[in-house]
Amino acid sequence: MIDVLYFAWVRERIGLPKERIDTQAATVAELVEELKAREDRYAAAFADLSALRVAVDQDLTDFDAPLAQAREVAFFPPMTGG
After folding, report:
1. What is the distance of C-alpha 54 from the center of its chain?
2. Phi and psi dihedrals of 5, rounded to 5?
3. CA-CA distance, 57 to 70, in Å (whole number)?
4. Collapsing DSSP states into helix, strand and coil, what is residue 79?
5. Mind listing the pLDDT tens digit of every residue in the chain (82 residues)?
6. Residue 82's pLDDT is what?
7. Three-state SS for 69?
8. Residue from 57, 1, 55, 5 nearest 24 by CA
């Protein structure tokens, strides 16, 4: 089981702040594919991965990052400074 957290417009499109998922995904990208296959709202949220950032166990990473011992994955838009 892994906790998946959604922030900003990702949360708005999916309609949940977080959920607990039983997954066999080996990487973040595989997890995204599983989520996209669930429902249209997930497919819409993950349609453009270049518009998303991901953190595994609170460390920023890439979509090819392994999920081996991960407890948490968070998806959010890029942060803007100013």
Report:
1. 6
2. -110, 140
3. 6
4. coil
5. 999 999 999 999 999 999 999 999 999 999 999 999 999 999 999 999 999 999 999 999 999 999 999 999 999 998 765 5
6. 52
7. coil
8. 1
DSSP sequence for 10-66: HHHHHT-SEEEE----SBHHHHHHHHHHH-HHHHHHTS-GGG-EEEETTEEE-TT-B
| CA separation for the pair 14, 70 (Å, rounded) | 22
- The SS3 call for residue 3 is strand
3-state secondary structure of 67: coil
**pLDDT of amino acid 79:** 74
Paired residues of 54 in beta bridges: 61, 75
Q: What is the pTM of this model?
A: 0.92
